[in-house]
Specification:
5-stranded mixed sheet, 3 helices, globular, Phosphoribosylpyrophosphate synthetase
Length: 101
Amino acid sequence: MDRQMYHYATVTKALQELNEKGFTTDFNLKEDHIINHWKDFEIEHIYRYEGESDPGDEATVFGIKSTSGEKGVFVVSPGAYTENGAAKVLLDISIRGRAEQ
């Protein structure tokens, strides 16, 4: 599936757009499930928010779908990619997906 990457002015706008597309689950609350069952997830959308005045305001919003059909979002700050958490797993899924195309 072609992943779509969007740039919006705010994280809120990205979350609204995804919610309208049926991405309603907050996967930040299910981080352990993403880490332990990463093969069950696919990234369908990536939204990037770049803080205009403060790099600390940057964030990435992933629209992800599970193999069971559950669709939701995962919001990540840039520093989270260095940890061994779900953010790193999603980045790896995203990179792997690009290599397969």
